[in-house]
Fold these 3 entries.
Entry 1:
Amino acid sequence: MKELIEKKFGQWDSLISAGSQEFTQTMSWMLHWLLIYSFTAKDLTNSGLFATILTDHQLYGNLFLNVIQLRQQSLSRYMISSFLLARGQPKAKYQVNKNALEEIALPIALENLQTGVTDAFSSFLKAIYEDYDLDTALALVEDMGKQASEDFLLKNYVFDIKKQAYLLILQTKCKVFRTVQAAEIKKYLPEVEAACQDIANHLQADGFELIVPAEVKSGKGAITCSVGKKNDSE
């Protein structure tokens, strides 16, 4: 990606050494170009590319995040959508920090809401990470899908955004209550077996083990999780 940026805008070292006003304008144009490229490039294998760029502090620092903060009302939904999409990336090199939504996106989302703007994506993060209101978060997923379907850049990602949002809610619910009914999983994610595997993968990254009885595959019973052996011994 660094090579692609330099091909489009010039050498990175010369960009970051430019004057403050020129630099801010250049970074804004660059971020908007990367945003459009990330959500419209047909040959792109990393659907969470925008998130990958925003979280690559070693290469870009907080340069792009600073632009997001300056234009949070128009850009925050793309940041949150990209972080959600990155959760579903099978390739490790495209995955972002598992806490990126809470540690990076949430503060910007809260600032966005404080301006009085009505945004389902920002409200979704607030419901999960600040209010711990999973019922509200579930209701907001449909609003996110509606807003995404009406957005030129996000309309092709509605299904995946909603899927990852539901997985995040169910993962969080399992961590908090230690169990989730299979019927609830099936209600939001009909492919229960695949959903349970995704939930298990995310929980494992958080140090939990998921138990999935055979009957869960048919939408019966419940999944349960417990603290993994590594965490239990600490």
Entry 2:
Amino acid sequence: MSNAAVPVGTPLRRFAGWAGLGFALLVLIQNGVLLMGVPLNDAPMDEIQSFYTDSASRITAATALVPINVVLLLTFVAGVTSWARERSSASLDWGRLGLGGAVLMASTFLLTTVLQIALVVLIDVGTDSSIIELIWIVHAAAFALNMTGLAVTLVGLAQVSRVSGLGPNWLNSVALAGALCLLIAAVFAKQTTDGSPVLFVGLAGFATWLVWVPVNSIILIRRQAH
């Protein structure tokens, strides 16, 4: 029997690239299809209630994908940091930062999902509009603050990619700019909740995340194949 050492976490790294692609695809389906037409934060209550009434089945489907997204996200981040750690010890601290950010982001994703489910259920049973408005405000604030975790994740992973040579440096630089956009939106969470256009600054940062993840997932898959 061979005593050759097998790198720890190899199966995880082999699946990480596919997990990243799956995560990006599901997020696009959630936000681009199932939640299309979601009201802006400062929309009137009538519009919000109408959307949740008319789109209850789509919103329910979107929330059902969140647990899968969380598993894929954490698998991707853990796999990327594991792959990079074997190639550069300098990536260790950045990897910890990225993984910590991903855990924070996943936790806040779950919170916003709980609030989405609550809105669907409470609107369906005819709950008083003042309660619906309160939950909507909390949901909007949690969504804005969730950009903090995403910013931390993006900074950590972009630096992991840079020091380990995983992805192109131009994309890592774009990711850092995207992280700054996300952090700005999170800092102005109160204004974002009130309907400020600063929300779109955060969404620009979110777009860089949805580019960074699949590009580096494909690269990781190719590296594992050789």
Entry 3:
Amino acid sequence: MRKASRLAKAHMRLALAAGIIALTICPLSLASAVADESRVLALENAWNQAQLHHDAAALDNLLPHSFIYTDYDGTVMNKEQFLADLKDPSYQASLVVNENVRVFTYNGAAVVVGTYHTKGKYKGRPFEHWGRFTDTWVFENGLWQCVASHTTLIKK
């Protein structure tokens, strides 16, 4: 009986230690997910600012060579094409805003979904668009980069 009692106590200690470890790790992983979410949201906002100011150099660091973009009209662009399009001086945005944004974090990745509102002039003609977007971010080598972006037009 003594052996069974010692074994039961050992199991209880092991269960208690596992519980303490779980309670310690869970808040840390939650804090990490919140930090990742905040960082990715900041990068999304930096992206919008880069679009407003035709700052391809700023976006160059946020996009890997393998980046792929699908525009609301079905046009698919690689990184080089996307950055060239960003530099087009005939596109003059006065507003680029994301709304209703949600971030879903995963181990080393994040998916951002939301709506966007853009306004300005293109080739001298005014435009105003509302749409939805999905951006997929990956954390590699200590850096968050957007590997894919897709937009869908809701209305012009």
